[in-house]
Amino acid sequence: MTQSTPPALETEPLAAGELFGERIELARSFVASLAEHGETLGLIGPRELPQLWSRHILNSALLAPLLGGRVGDVGSGAGLPGLVLGIARPDVEFTLIEPMERRTQWLQSEVARMGLANVSVLRARAEELPGTGLLRPLDQVTARAVSALRTLIPLTAPLVRSGGQLVLMKGARAEDELAAAQKVIRKHRLHDVEVLELGAEHGVETTRIVRAVVDP
Ligand SMILES: C[S@@+](CC[C@H](N)C(=O)[O-])C[C@H]1O[C@@H](n2cnc3c(N)ncnc32)[C@H](O)[C@@H]1O
Fold it and tell me: Which positions bind S-adenosyl-L-methionine (predicted)?
Protein backbone atom coordinates (compact mmCIF):
# COMPACT_ATOMS: atom_id res chain seq x y z
CA MET A 1 0.00 0.00 0.00
CA THR A 2 1.38 3.44 -0.89
CA GLN A 3 1.12 6.29 1.58
CA SER A 4 0.44 9.75 0.17
CA THR A 5 2.72 12.57 1.33
CA PRO A 6 0.85 15.26 3.29
CA PRO A 7 0.69 18.56 1.39
CA ALA A 8 3.40 21.04 2.38
CA LEU A 9 2.67 24.29 4.18
CA GLU A 10 2.82 27.28 1.83
CA THR A 11 6.02 29.29 2.02
CA GLU A 12 5.41 32.63 3.71
CA PRO A 13 4.55 35.22 1.02
CA LEU A 14 6.49 38.51 0.96
CA ALA A 15 3.32 40.48 1.71
CA ALA A 16 3.12 38.87 5.17
CA GLY A 17 5.89 41.16 6.46
CA GLU A 18 4.07 44.19 5.03
CA LEU A 19 0.73 43.25 6.60
CA PHE A 20 1.95 42.17 10.05
CA GLY A 21 4.98 44.46 10.50
CA GLU A 22 6.59 43.87 13.87
CA ARG A 23 3.85 41.31 14.72
CA ILE A 24 5.11 38.90 12.06
CA GLU A 25 6.63 36.48 14.59
CA LEU A 26 3.23 36.08 16.30
CA ALA A 27 1.57 35.56 12.92
CA ARG A 28 4.16 32.85 12.10
CA SER A 29 3.52 31.23 15.45
CA PHE A 30 -0.26 31.12 14.79
CA VAL A 31 0.25 29.70 11.29
CA ALA A 32 2.57 27.00 12.66
CA SER A 33 0.06 26.05 15.35
CA LEU A 34 -2.86 25.99 12.89
CA ALA A 35 -0.81 23.91 10.44
CA GLU A 36 0.06 21.45 13.22
CA HIS A 37 -3.33 21.09 14.92
CA GLY A 38 -5.91 22.51 12.51
CA GLU A 39 -6.73 19.35 10.62
CA THR A 40 -6.94 17.11 13.72
CA LEU A 41 -9.25 19.62 15.40
CA GLY A 42 -11.42 19.88 12.29
CA LEU A 43 -10.59 23.55 11.81
CA ILE A 44 -9.06 23.32 8.34
CA GLY A 45 -9.04 20.70 5.62
CA PRO A 46 -5.81 18.89 4.58
CA ARG A 47 -5.80 20.71 1.26
CA GLU A 48 -5.61 24.11 2.99
CA LEU A 49 -1.93 23.89 3.96
CA PRO A 50 -0.55 24.85 0.53
CA GLN A 51 -2.70 28.01 0.63
CA LEU A 52 -2.84 28.69 4.36
CA TRP A 53 -0.94 31.99 4.23
CA SER A 54 -2.41 33.49 1.07
CA ARG A 55 -6.00 32.19 1.10
CA HIS A 56 -6.64 32.49 4.84
CA ILE A 57 -4.10 34.46 6.89
CA LEU A 58 -3.28 37.33 4.52
CA ASN A 59 -6.87 37.41 3.27
CA SER A 60 -7.96 38.01 6.89
CA ALA A 61 -5.17 40.51 7.64
CA LEU A 62 -6.29 42.74 4.74
CA LEU A 63 -9.06 44.06 6.99
CA ALA A 64 -6.64 45.40 9.61
CA PRO A 65 -6.48 49.03 8.35
CA LEU A 66 -10.30 49.27 8.30
CA LEU A 67 -10.77 48.60 12.01
CA GLY A 68 -10.70 50.49 15.29
CA GLY A 69 -12.22 50.57 18.79
CA ARG A 70 -14.16 47.47 19.91
CA VAL A 71 -14.69 44.86 17.22
CA GLY A 72 -16.67 41.61 17.32
CA ASP A 73 -15.92 38.77 14.88
CA VAL A 74 -18.99 36.58 14.35
CA GLY A 75 -18.31 32.90 13.60
CA SER A 76 -14.53 33.00 14.08
CA GLY A 77 -14.01 29.26 13.59
CA ALA A 78 -10.25 28.68 13.43
CA GLY A 79 -9.70 32.41 14.13
CA LEU A 80 -10.45 33.89 10.71
CA PRO A 81 -10.45 36.78 10.48
CA GLY A 82 -10.75 37.77 14.20
CA LEU A 83 -7.70 36.14 15.74
CA VAL A 84 -5.46 37.07 12.81
CA LEU A 85 -6.67 40.66 13.16
CA GLY A 86 -6.08 40.54 16.91
CA ILE A 87 -2.44 39.73 16.10
CA ALA A 88 -2.13 42.46 13.44
CA ARG A 89 -3.87 45.18 15.51
CA PRO A 90 -2.93 45.02 19.22
CA ASP A 91 -4.48 48.50 19.62
CA VAL A 92 -7.98 47.20 18.77
CA GLU A 93 -10.13 45.16 21.19
CA PHE A 94 -11.55 41.99 19.61
CA THR A 95 -14.30 39.64 20.82
CA LEU A 96 -14.40 36.35 18.94
CA ILE A 97 -18.00 35.07 18.90
CA GLU A 98 -18.26 31.38 18.15
CA PRO A 99 -20.88 28.82 19.32
CA MET A 100 -18.94 25.56 18.89
CA GLU A 101 -17.18 24.45 22.08
CA ARG A 102 -14.25 22.74 20.35
CA ARG A 103 -13.58 25.89 18.34
CA THR A 104 -13.85 28.23 21.35
CA GLN A 105 -11.40 25.98 23.23
CA TRP A 106 -8.95 26.27 20.35
CA LEU A 107 -9.39 30.05 20.18
CA GLN A 108 -8.97 30.45 23.93
CA SER A 109 -5.85 28.29 24.01
CA GLU A 110 -4.27 30.24 21.12
CA VAL A 111 -5.12 33.60 22.73
CA ALA A 112 -3.49 32.42 25.99
CA ARG A 113 -0.47 30.82 24.26
CA MET A 114 0.28 34.03 22.32
CA GLY A 115 -0.57 36.33 25.27
CA LEU A 116 -3.04 38.42 23.25
CA ALA A 117 -4.40 40.81 25.89
CA ASN A 118 -6.65 42.53 23.30
CA VAL A 119 -8.60 39.39 22.31
CA SER A 120 -11.40 37.63 24.20
CA VAL A 121 -13.56 34.67 23.22
CA LEU A 122 -17.32 34.42 23.74
CA ARG A 123 -19.08 31.11 23.23
CA ALA A 124 -22.45 32.14 21.80
CA ARG A 125 -24.65 32.34 18.76
CA ALA A 126 -24.66 35.96 17.60
CA GLU A 127 -28.46 36.22 17.48
CA GLU A 128 -28.76 35.21 21.14
CA LEU A 129 -26.50 38.02 22.42
CA PRO A 130 -28.59 41.23 22.17
CA GLY A 131 -30.24 42.00 25.50
CA THR A 132 -28.14 39.53 27.52
CA GLY A 133 -25.63 42.08 28.83
CA LEU A 134 -22.81 39.73 27.75
CA LEU A 135 -21.56 42.11 25.09
CA ARG A 136 -21.68 45.92 25.02
CA PRO A 137 -22.64 47.41 21.61
CA LEU A 138 -19.64 47.15 19.31
CA ASP A 139 -18.02 49.74 17.06
CA GLN A 140 -17.65 47.21 14.25
CA VAL A 141 -18.49 43.61 13.44
CA THR A 142 -16.56 41.40 11.04
CA ALA A 143 -17.51 38.00 9.62
CA ARG A 144 -16.07 35.63 7.03
CA ALA A 145 -17.71 32.58 5.46
CA VAL A 146 -20.61 32.51 7.94
CA SER A 147 -23.66 32.96 5.68
CA ALA A 148 -25.10 35.00 2.83
CA LEU A 149 -25.77 38.69 3.57
CA ARG A 150 -29.53 38.12 3.69
CA THR A 151 -29.05 36.05 6.86
CA LEU A 152 -25.74 37.53 8.03
CA ILE A 153 -27.01 41.10 8.38
CA PRO A 154 -29.77 40.16 10.89
CA LEU A 155 -27.12 38.24 12.91
CA THR A 156 -24.55 41.04 12.98
CA ALA A 157 -26.31 44.44 12.79
CA PRO A 158 -27.99 44.17 16.25
CA LEU A 159 -24.52 43.84 17.86
CA VAL A 160 -23.32 47.21 16.56
CA ARG A 161 -23.84 50.62 18.18
CA SER A 162 -25.66 53.37 16.34
CA GLY A 163 -23.20 54.73 13.76
CA GLY A 164 -20.97 51.63 13.96
CA GLN A 165 -20.09 49.47 10.97
CA LEU A 166 -20.45 46.03 9.48
CA VAL A 167 -17.25 44.89 7.72
CA LEU A 168 -18.20 41.63 6.06
CA MET A 169 -15.84 39.53 3.93
CA LYS A 170 -17.46 38.37 0.73
CA GLY A 171 -16.22 36.82 -2.48
CA ALA A 172 -17.14 37.44 -6.07
CA ARG A 173 -20.85 37.23 -5.23
CA ALA A 174 -20.90 40.37 -3.06
CA GLU A 175 -23.16 42.36 -5.42
CA ASP A 176 -25.57 39.43 -5.95
CA GLU A 177 -25.81 38.94 -2.18
CA LEU A 178 -26.42 42.67 -1.70
CA ALA A 179 -29.22 42.60 -4.28
CA ALA A 180 -30.85 39.70 -2.42
CA ALA A 181 -30.46 41.47 0.93
CA GLN A 182 -32.24 44.76 0.18
CA LYS A 183 -35.13 43.97 2.53
CA VAL A 184 -32.89 43.33 5.57
CA ILE A 185 -30.69 46.31 4.65
CA ARG A 186 -33.78 48.53 5.00
CA LYS A 187 -35.05 46.69 8.10
CA HIS A 188 -31.72 47.14 9.94
CA ARG A 189 -31.36 50.71 8.64
CA LEU A 190 -27.97 50.24 7.02
CA HIS A 191 -26.62 53.13 5.01
CA ASP A 192 -23.47 54.05 3.07
CA VAL A 193 -23.34 50.44 1.87
CA GLU A 194 -20.23 49.90 -0.28
CA VAL A 195 -18.16 47.08 -1.76
CA LEU A 196 -14.39 47.44 -1.30
CA GLU A 197 -11.86 45.34 -3.18
CA LEU A 198 -8.67 44.74 -1.20
CA GLY A 199 -5.47 42.83 -1.87
CA ALA A 200 -4.05 44.22 -5.12
CA GLU A 201 -2.17 46.89 -3.15
CA HIS A 202 -0.19 44.08 -1.46
CA GLY A 203 0.05 41.85 -4.53
CA VAL A 204 -2.16 39.17 -2.94
CA GLU A 205 -5.39 37.51 -4.07
CA THR A 206 -8.11 40.15 -3.95
CA THR A 207 -11.07 39.92 -1.60
CA ARG A 208 -14.29 41.87 -1.50
CA ILE A 209 -15.64 43.53 1.62
CA VAL A 210 -19.17 44.75 2.14
CA ARG A 211 -19.02 47.70 4.51
CA ALA A 212 -22.08 49.51 5.85
CA VAL A 213 -22.99 51.92 8.63
CA VAL A 214 -25.60 50.73 11.13
CA ASP A 215 -28.10 53.33 12.27
CA PRO A 216 -30.75 51.68 14.43
C1 LIG B 1 -17.66 28.07 7.62
S2 LIG B 1 -17.16 28.51 9.23
C3 LIG B 1 -16.11 29.90 8.90
C4 LIG B 1 -15.14 30.11 10.01
C5 LIG B 1 -14.19 31.29 9.80
N6 LIG B 1 -14.89 32.56 9.89
C7 LIG B 1 -13.45 31.17 8.50
O8 LIG B 1 -13.53 32.07 7.67
O9 LIG B 1 -12.75 30.16 8.30
C10 LIG B 1 -18.60 29.29 9.95
C11 LIG B 1 -18.46 29.52 11.44
O12 LIG B 1 -19.56 30.29 11.88
C13 LIG B 1 -20.03 29.77 13.10
N14 LIG B 1 -21.44 30.16 13.22
C15 LIG B 1 -22.50 29.62 12.56
N16 LIG B 1 -23.65 30.22 12.93
C17 LIG B 1 -23.31 31.16 13.85
C18 LIG B 1 -24.07 32.08 14.63
N19 LIG B 1 -25.39 32.15 14.53
N20 LIG B 1 -23.40 32.90 15.48
C21 LIG B 1 -22.06 32.83 15.59
N22 LIG B 1 -21.29 31.95 14.89
C23 LIG B 1 -21.91 31.13 14.03
C24 LIG B 1 -19.80 28.26 12.97
O25 LIG B 1 -19.76 27.59 14.21
C26 LIG B 1 -18.47 28.23 12.24
O27 LIG B 1 -17.37 28.20 13.13
Answer: 75, 80, 126-127, 144
pLDDT at position 99: 98
- Rounded CA separation 181/93 (Å): 29
Query: 4 C-alpha to center of ligand 1: Å?
Result: 31
Predicted interface score ipTM higher than 0.95? yes
Determine the pLDDT at residue 5: 73
Pocket of ligand 1 contains residue 199 by CB under 6 Å: no
Ligand 1 pocket check for 167: Cβ under 6 Å: no
* Backbone phi, psi, residue 88, to 5°: -70, -30
Task: Give the residue numbers of the binding site.
Answer: 75, 80, 126-127, 144
Residue 165: CB atoms within 10 A of its CB come to: 23
Quick one: residue 189, left, alpha or beta (phi over 0 = left, psi -120 to 50 = alpha)?
left
pLDDT tens, residue by residue, 183-204 = 999 999 999 999 999 999 999 9
CA-proximal residue: ligand 1, atom 18 (nearest): 125
Query: Domains (ranges, CATH) in the chain?
Result: 15-214 (3.40.50.150)
d(CA 68, CA 136): 15
| Residue 2 confidence (pLDDT) | 57
